[in-house]
Write a structure and sequence with these properties.
The complex is a heterodimer of chains A (226) and B (637). By secondary structure, chain A is of the alpha+beta class. Chain A has six helices and eleven strands. In chain A, strands 1, 2, 3, 4, 5, 8, 9, 10 and 11 form a nine-stranded mixed β-sheet that branches. A two-stranded antiparallel ribbon of chain A has the order 6-7. The mean pLDDT of chain A is 94. Chain B is an alpha/beta fold and 637 residues long. Classes of the chains: A alpha+beta (226), B alpha/beta (637). The complex binds iron/sulfur cluster.
Chain lengths: 226, 637
């Protein structure tokens, strides 16, 4: 069986990179004493994958680990033993047992929901009202780094939803293995729409609140429930 | 106005390696500030990655936090980028856990592992809002304490530390904290508190001692200036090493640190008596942890940390009496958990060798040997009991056993060293290479790599070489040049370091009180993080000596007289000055001293009844020693 564990990467540890988060989860699994499956070979490691890498600097409310178990365990047991074994900064909120043939999370991932907090009030006052203006455009061109340098791309088709409130932006953005829209691109787009100079630095706190999969075309639901 | 926390958050977004400053690792306790009356901040004067690799910091923070009356937070030396931002934003150096400035704590404790971290101590104090010089501190300032290996000559940094703990930190730490808690609760003055601290066994309070000097700069007298301070400070020993405090929860960093694994200290001390080795002199007598204790600790730690590797540590793990049994037992218990064991030693019996190959729990990384000197004569001078035959035999075993990579450690600039001894290094390397080619082609592992590493000898206090001169920089440069020439051997890589850092290390390891001025001056000239190649500013250090009117050669390159009062003479570290001088004279005659397991050499420890198992033959319960020369497994190079 496989266990899908929904866990938090809280603000305190948001600067920890994905590789280190992976290792922390591996070690947490080892500490938990749960019957996890190991890879063969010289340096055996626990068979655990992650639905999506969360970038350094971003916090996550409902990230998902996908653990291959060597024996059956109940969801309750997985949850309580993992929570005893993980630091307060990375606790699990739910767990779901699925069969081995359950599709890989990475392949089913469609979008991510984000809360982008603008640190500076003044900037929020300029950027939040620009949301509607930007979304009204036919195309939203933003600079994006590619192998051949920085190029403008149209990010409009990558945005599922976007709204603002106070100093917060709530965004649902495409996140697949092939194509994705990063929260930083939204900020770049809003800067253009609000007429802010490109070099102005906008300090944000990015929290990914939910990963989404697609039940049927157009219907997004939490990835862990798929 | 931004609050301090917001400023820190903003800074963290800009620095490289923010996790150095954020804490929140598994097994780090965060106690509520109000919960404990005494607030201690453990300061490690180097970066997070270096600090979190030390077992000591984890043991002491655990110990202090385990007391209901004290809490312990951590602080490390920030990297240059962070320091610049802190300065710009006027954010004081803060603790990892509650982000309070150092000056808010009752006790600020430094661990001194190497001399070249001293400028970091000064930097951390200043950034933490505490006057650098102890004389400048006022009633509201924390008490600044320090311990660790370098406390065995505290004088060079004694202008900046209120109290030193000499010897085993676990024992004395809580007593010191008790006194400082009394100060807080009874409203004692700083002075009164320091006087009380001076009465704790193993504590040295520099303010209570005065030093006078002869015209030539040597010490004329060194004595207490008040009745509360003992004339001699006797170091502390661990009462029962086997049962000594051991934290069951060990912090597990998120980011990779220098040593990211479980370290089991299997024994303390060493019986071999190498004359250059300060640890071998200071950590006498040898004490082993029992197999049961170690297995229990290993299991507890694996459960608490989830680490995938255990390494055994001690000065000479190969001498641990039941090493094969220990390794076999650990491997048996750890197999299920997929934990690998790093072998410290090549003292592997044939049975063990087979089980190693079966279990694959041991990695064939490179093996380390430390002959230290190139000829038998010089090895006798330093009392390094390794012969050429031993080394060659071990190399042969290793190559036949499938290893292809061997590291050889040497020192240059040892007392009485000649160019013949340097040629001896090349000769040994050549012979090791030859052993590899003697193994038939199909049977040996591919990719021969013999690495010869040479470090520059630094004479240390409390060793028979404490009177010796270090070679001058030009002399060392010439010797290294020669080594580069003779070590142009196929299959051999030569590693060396420019001697400048070792030169300063030599100044500060045997420095007196006056050299503290140089330290401060160098810090003012921007010296910091000196252990990091790209930060080390040798010229500034030399300029600081000039500014203070002191000559580095006086400390590094001078032979001391037998009768000279040495700055650390007032410390009783177990071994006696008579023993050290005896050893020095034997060294002059290239005469070896036997391993303590073959009989007591009367180092001084025998004065303390019942401490050393080998001092009293009747108490010696250890099985008859098999005095096989050892080698250690690499990875820690
Ligand atoms: S007391 Fe004797 S046996 Fe023990 S360490 Fe000292 S010299 Fe060696």
């Amino acid at each position: 069986m496989r266990m899908l564990g929904v866990f938090e990467k809280n603000e305190r540890v948001r600067h920890i990179g994905h590789l280190d988060i992976q290792r922390a989860v591996q070690r947490g699994l080892r500490r938990s004493g749960l019957p996890v499956a190991y890879s063969n070979g010289f340096n055996p490691h626990i068979l655990v994958t992650f639905a999506s890498a969360l970038s350094t600097g971003a916090a996550g409310k409902r990230e998902i680990m996908d653990v291959k178990m060597a024996e059956q365990v109940t969801e309750q047991e997985f949850l309580s033993r993992m929570n005893a074994a993980m630091p307060p900064e990375m606790q699990l909120s739910s767990a779901r047992g699925v069969e081995d043939k359950h599709p890989a999370l990475m392949a089913s991932l469609k979008a991510g929901m984000y809360e982008i907090i603008l640190r500076e009030e003044v900037q929020a006052e300029q950027l939040i009202p620009a949301i509607d203006k930007m979304m009204a455009q036919e195309e939203i061109q933003v600079p994006r780094k590619t192998k051949s340098g920085i190029k403008d791309v149209n990010m409009k088709p990558l945005i599922y939803a976007l709204r603002g409130e106070g100093q917060k932006i709530f965004a649902t953005l495409m996140l697949t293995e092939r194509e994705s829209c990063k929260p930083a691109m939204i900020i770049e787009g809003l800067k253009r729409a609000a007429g802010l100079p490109e070099e102005e630095e906008v300090r944000t706190l990015v929290i990914r609140t939910q990963l989404l999969g697609e039940r049927q075309p157009g219907e997004l639901i939490p990835l862990e429930e798929l | 106005m931004n609050t301090m926390n917001e400023k820190i958050e903003a800074m963290l977004e800009k620095v490289q390696k923010a996790p150095r400053y954020t804490g929140g690792e598994m097994n780090t306790q965060v106690k509520k500030w109000e919960e404990a009356p005494l607030h201690f901040v453990f300061c490690f004067p180097d970066t997070y990655e270096v600090g979190m690799s030390h077992l000591g910091i984890k043991i002491l923070t655990g110990l202090i936090n385990d007391q209901p009356w004290s809490l312990c937070e951590r602080c490390f030396m920030p990297w240059v980028d962070m320091m610049a931002l802190m300065k710009q934003e006027q954010v004081p150096l803060f603790s990892l856990e509650s982000r309070r400035p150092l000056k808010d704590f009752d006790v600020v404790g430094f661990t001194l592992m190497y001399e070249m971290s001293y400028t970091n101590v000064l930097a951390m104090l200043e950034m933490g809002g505490i006057p650098i010089e102890r004389k400048e501190r006022e009633e509201a300032d924390p008490i600044v304490v320090a311990g660790g290996g370098c406390a065995s000559n505290p004088e060079p940094i004694s202008d900046f530390i209120d109290a030193f703990m000499i010897g085993a930190g676990e024992e004395v730490m809580l007593e010191v904290n008790q006194v400082i808690l009394e100060r807080k609760q009874q409203g004692l003055s700083r002075e009164e508190c320091l006087k009380r601290l001076a009465q704790v066994e193993g504590v040295y309070v520099p303010a209570l001692y005065d030093a006078e000097y002869h015209e030539d700069g040597t010490l004329k007298s060194f004595a207490p200036n008040c009745p509360e301070a003992p004339a001699r400070v006797v170091k502390r020993y661990v009462d029962n090493f086997d049962q000594a405090y051991f934290p069951t929860k060990l912090a597990v960093p998120y980011t990779e640190v220098v040593f990211d694994r479980i370290t089991l200290e299997i024994m303390r001390g060493c019986t071999r008596g190498c004359r250059f080795c300060q640890a071998g002199m200071l950590y006498r007598p040898v004490r082993e942890r029992s197999l049961e204790t170690l297995v229990k600790q290993a299991e507890t730690l694996v459960e608490a940390t989830g680490y995938e590797e255990i390494s055994l540590s001690s000065l000479s793990s190969g001498d641990y009496t039941c090493l094969p049994e220990l390794i076999r037992e650990l491997m048996r218990r750890m197999k299920e958990k997929r934990v690998s064991i790093s072998l410290p030693s090549l003292r592997i019996d044939s049975v063990l060798k087979e089980s190693l190959e079966e279990t694959q729990q041991v990695k064939k990384s490179s093996l380390t040997f430390a002959p230290e000197a190139g000829t038998q004569r010089l090895r006798d001078v330093i009392n390094k009991g390794v012969t050429e035959e031993d080394l060659i035999e071990k190399a042969r075993d290793a190559f036949q056993g499938g290893w292809s990579s061997i590291k050889l450690y040497f020192m240059d600039g040892l007392p009485t060293e000649t160019y013949e001894d340097l040629d001896g290094i090349a000769d040994l390397a050549q012979k090791v290479v030859a052993e590899y080619f003697k193994v038939p082609k199909g049977e040996r592992a591919k990719g021969l790599r013999v690495t010869v590493s040479c470090s520059t000898f630094v004479p240390k206090p409390h060793t028979p070489f404490q009177w010796a001169a270090q070679d001058t920089i030009p002399v060392i440069n010439d010797k290294q040049e020669h080594l580069r020439e003779v070590l142009k051997i196929k299959g051999v890589t030569f590693n060396w370091h420019a001697p400048h850092l070792s030169y300063l290390e030599a100044c500060f390891s045997r420095g007196d009180r006056r050299i503290g001025r140089v330290l401060k001056r160098a810090y003012e000239r921007g010296c910091m993080l000196d252990g990091w190649n790209d930060q080390f500013k040798f010229e500034e250090w030399m300029a600081a000596f000039v500014d203070c009117g002191l000559d580095p050669a006086f400390y590094a390159n001078r032979v001391r007289d037998k009768d000279e009062i040495l700055p650390w003479d007032f410390l009783d570290c177990g071994i006696t000055k008579e023993f050290l001088w005896r050893e020095k004279e034997k060294s002059d005659r290239a005469e070896v001293t036997k391993d303590c397991r073959l009989g007591c050499n009367a180092c001084g420890i025998q004065r303390i009844k019942g401490l050393c198992a080998y001092a009293d033959p009747k108490r010696n319960k250890a099985p008859s020693p098999s005095l096989v020369p050892y080698a250690s497994e690499g990875g820690e190079g």
